[in-house]
Design brief:
This protein is of the alpha/beta class and about 325 residues long. The protein has a single domain, classed as 4-Layer Sandwich (Nitrilase/N-carbamoyl-D-aminoacid amidohydrolase), CATH 3.60.110.10. About 30% of the residues lie in helices and about 25% in strands. It is built from nine helices and 13 strands. It has helices at about 20-40, 55-60, 70-80, 90-100, 175-180, 200-210, 225-230, 240-245, 290-295, and strands at about 5-15, 45, 105-115, 115-125, 130-135, 155-160, 160-170, 185-190, 215-220, 220-225, 255-265, 270-275, 280-285. Strands 6, 7, 8, 9, 10, 11 and 12 form a seven-stranded mixed β-sheet that branches. A hairpin with a 5-residue loop joins strand 11 (about 255-265) and strand 12 (about 270-275). Helix 1 (about 20-40) packs parallel to helix 4 (about 90-100).
Length: about 325
C-alpha cells in the first residue's frame, strides 16, 4: 500500500509592508515568500490589503471622512497609484515568486480595475496558475475606497492536499457567503483581517468548525512610525497628507494594528496561539487527516445539511454595467 504525505507546512506573514509603496512592498513580499519557503512552508498567507497596506486613516484620522477633504483625495490618489493590476508588473513579480519557491501564496492587495479599487485576495500556485477573490461587501468607512465584488470571484485553488479558499474580514459574518464556501469543501481557508482582534478570532474559530477546515487568520502589525516611514519612502509627499497620518496617534510607537495571527484546526482549537505585537512569520504543520476525522461530526454541505428544507442559489455571473 502506498503511503502519501498528508501534511502541509503553512506560514502566516505578520510583517509590516512598506506602507503606501507598492514596489518596495512587492520586493519585501518576494523576500518573505522565499524565507518562508526556505523554512519548509508550502502555503504562505499574507493579511488583508498587505499590498501596500490597510488604509488605516479612514478609521483613525479625525477628518478623513469629511466631504471634499483635499488630504483624503490625495491619499486616495497615492493608494490608486500604488495598487496592483492583474495582469501587471507587480502581479507578475508575485506570481514568479510563488513559482520559483514552489509555494501556494495568498496575498491581500488593493486591486485597480478600470477606475475602481477592490479589496482583493490573490491565490497563486507554484505551477503559475492563479485566481482571485474580490471582497463582496466593504464595511463602514471602507465604502469610501472600495467597490463591491461579485459572485464571479468566489474562487479557490486546488492543492495536492485539498482545496484552498478564503474570505476577507467581515465576509466571515455573512452566513450565505460561508455556506457557499463550505460547498466547495475547503481544506485550507485563508481568513484575512487588518489585524485579528478578539471579535475576529471568534469568527475565524467558528468558521473552522463549521467548515471543518484549517483556518489561517492573518493580521498585520503596523505602527504610526511604519505608516510615516512608508509615506516618506516615496519623495514628494504633501506635508498636510503626512500630518493627517501623524494625527492617528499620540506617538510614533502607537500600534494601529496588532497582528494577532493564528492557525486554527477543524475542532476550532488553536494550532498556533494568536501572536500579538510582533513582526514575524508564524509556522505550523497541518495534518489533513484531522479534516477527514472531523467530518464524522460535522459536514455542513453533507450529512449535516438539510437540502429538503434549505437551499442557496449563488450568482457567479460577472456583474457588468455595459455589455458590448
Amino acid at each position: 500500500m502506498n503511503v502519501y504525505p498528508k501534511t502541509m507546512t503553512a506560514a502566516i506573514v505578520q510583517h509590516t509592508p512598506v506602507f503606501l509603496n507598492l514596489d518596495a512592498s512587492v520586493n519585501k513580499a518576494a523576500k518573505l515568500i522565499a524565507e518562508s519557503a526556505g523554512n519548509g512552508a508550502g502555503l504562505i498567507v499574507f493579511p488583508e490589503t498587505w499590498l501596500p497596506g490597510y488604509p488605516v486613516w479612514i478609521d483613525t484620522a479625525p477628518e478623513a471622512a469629511i466631504w471634499g477633504n483635499p488630504v483624503s483625495h490625495r491619499l486616495y490618489r497615492r493608494l490608486v497609484e500604488n495598487s496592483i493590476t492583474v495582469p501587471g508588473e507587480a502581479f507578475s513579480t508575485l506570481r514568479r515568486s510563488a513559482m520559483e519557491n514552489g509555494a501556494y501564496v495568498v496575498m491581500g492587495a488593493h486591486e485597480k480595475v478600470g477606475n475602481t479599487l477592490y479589496n482583493t485576495m490573490l491565490f497563486l500556485a507554484p505551477d503559475g496558475s492563479y485566481t482571485l477573490h474580490r471582497k463582496l461587501t466593504p464595511t463602514y468607512t471602507e465604502k469610501l475606497l472600495w467597490g463591491a465584488g461579485d459572485g464571479s470571484t468566489l474562487e479557490m485553488l486546488d492543492t495536492p492536499l485539498g482545496v484552498l479558499g478564503g474570505l476577507i474580514c467581515w465576509e466571515h459574518w455573512m452566513p450565505l457567503a460561508r455556506a457557499a464556501m463550505h460547498a466547495k469543501h475547503e481544506v485550507f481557508h485563508a481568513a484575512q483581517w487588518p489585524w485579528v482582534r478578539e471579535l475576529h478570532q471568534i469568527a475565524s474559530r467558528q468558521y473552522s468548525f463549521e467548515g471543518q477546515c484549517f483556518v489561517l487568520a492573518a493580521g498585520t502589525v503596523l505602527s504610526i512610525q511604519d505608516v510615516l516611514e512608508g509615506f516618506d519612502s516615496i519623495p514628494g509627499g504633501d506635508p498636510d497628507d503626512r500630518a493627517m497620518l501623524e494625527s492617528m496617534g499620540s506617538s510614533p510607537e502607537t500600534l494601529l494594528q496588532r497582528g494577532g495571527s493564528a492557525i486554527i484546526g477543524p475542532d476550532a482549537m488553536y494550532v498556533t496561539e494568536p501572536v500579538y505585537d510582533s513582526r514575524e512569520t508564524i509556522f505550523a504543520e497541518l495534518d489533513t487527516d484531522r479534516v477527514t476525522e472531523g467530518h464524522l461530526l460535522m459536514d455542513s454541505d453533507g450529512h449535516y445539511s438539510r437540502p429538503d428544507v434549505f437551499s442557496l442559489k449563488v450568482n457567479t455571473t460577472p456583474a457588468k454595467n455595459v455589455e458590448f
